[in-house]
Structures are given as C-alpha cells and as structure tokens.
Amino acid sequence: MLDDALNTVMELTRATGAVVLLSEAGKGLAVASVKGQMTQVDRSAFDSGQTLARACLESHSVLHSDATHDDPRVHGPGCHRAKMRSLIATPLRYGDDVLGVLEVCSSVTHAFDTIDAQAVALLGNAMGGALGRQMALDDNARLLARLEEALHVTQATARKYKDAALYDALTGLPNRAMLEGQLEEACRTHEGHANRFALMFIDLDGFKPINDTYGHATGDAVLREVGRVLHDCVRDTDLVARLGGDEFVILLSPLRDAQNDVQLIAAAIKRSLEQPREIDGVEFTIRASVGWETFNNHDAQSMLAAADQAMYRNKKERGQR
User: Fold this and answer.
1) Which positions fall inside the GGDEF domain (predicted)?
2) Pick the catalytic residue: 47, 168, 246, 308?
C-alpha cells in the first residue's frame, strides 16, 4: 500500500521521486518505501539532513523547497548527487505523534506550488492515520484495508481539489494556471529546437454586445460553445485553455513546421467559429481575432505575451473591439 501511495502522490504532483520514512526510536529515520529519483539517495542521507526530511520531522510541519542548492535547511551532497532541485516534505501524523515523513522531489527548480504542498499534506495525513492505527491494533491485515480505503478517499479528494484549481468552472477547459505549467514544460522540452510548437491567442470580436443584448447567461453559453468548437478543431495532444473573459489560448504541440502549420490551424478555427449556429434560441456567427507565436527558445511568459500582442495587432488591423 505504501508503494501505491507514492505512485498516487507522484501522479498528483508530477514529482520525479517520493519516499516514506518512518521514525524509529533511537535509530533515526528508516526508509519504508521509495520510488523514482529518491532511490538514488543514500538511505542515511535522509536522516542526516541532506533532504528536508530531518527538518520536517523536527519541526512537525510541511516544508517546501523551490531550490535545494540555496536552502540552508538542506545539508550535504545528497540532493546535488541525485539532481533533486525541488522538495516537499510533510509529517505523518497520528494524534499528537509524528510517525515519520512523506517526501517528494523534482529534478527542476520551482516545480511545486502551494496546491502540490496541500495535496502532499493530505496524503501524509491519510498515511499517518492508517499507520498509527496499525501500530495501535497490531493487525497488519486490518491496517492494509484501512490504509487502502483512506488512500482511495484522499486520492479522490485531492484530485477534486486540484481539478478545481486547474480548470475553468464555466467551460471545463484548463485555466491559466494549467496552461502556464504546460507551456513551461513545452519550452523546457523543446529548448534548442525552434519552430516545433506554437501558442495561439484567440479573443472574440464584439462579445460585450452579446452580454448587453441577450444577458450573461447567453454570453456564458456562447463561451461554452467556443470552448467546444476550439477543442474539436485541434488534436488530443494540443491544450485549449480559457484565460478569462472571452480570451482563449491553444498550445499546439508538437508541430512538424510551426510557421506553416499554425496558419492552417488558425484558418480552420476561424472557419469553424464563423459557421452560423443557434445558441439559447438565437442565431450567432462568432468571429474572433487570432494571433500566435512560434517557439524560438522563449520562456513561457514572453511567449504568452508575444502571442497576445500578435492577436491585438490582428484585432486593430481589422478594426475590431
């Protein structure tokens, strides 16, 4: 069950490694289960403070490090040798006792956010409760059943919590937070290989009069329809996100020749949006201004800003608002 728990926490946070450490009276921390990148760390390194585990056990609090090489709480060469750049550690609590530590890592700096830390803490609480009941009952069979049940419930809760933070409530599309995370990953993956993916920025033309004339409920229905059309126009490997209002962004990755491919995709999207359609009993022809930027060793924020500027140039040239 500990292995399943580590698989769950790595999936939820996109960590590259995880470990469960149990506190043994007079003997320090002992590895109970370990996955991924954490297997490269010498087991004594956890107990000697070469990760956040020792500091977490002593402080009884969730600890988060965005850059281990600059973190005074991390001592020794363990993180450097294993190329662990980011860490989250949470205590395994049972009542007033701390039974051990759940720790996850990533090979990149600033890999985790507060939502990841909260998800790790949720799983740590579930695991601590289950492990504590095992020690109290001294019944391995009953522990495994309870641990599995607690993990399933916690996994569902953590997924729901994370989904709420990463998806737009109106359209069900990914939101800005998810887009920025995926865009950063795409920039890292394609570093040194220009023109392999593109970012498209889409802003509806004349959307405000729809709200003013037909009401916000109809406006919301139009936004949901736009999200559906955009999703149907691209591949499963592409990411359609709503930034807010009537602004949408599409991460097109990978592309064979982004300079040429993105123009064809943009034309197809505009044709699809402009097909007359009935929404809430009203016939609409949806028009949009589209701009894009192809990857040329950008960082995520500069690429998003460039696509936004390209869209506004297109809107201004067409005399739209």
Assistant:
1) 195-321
2) 246
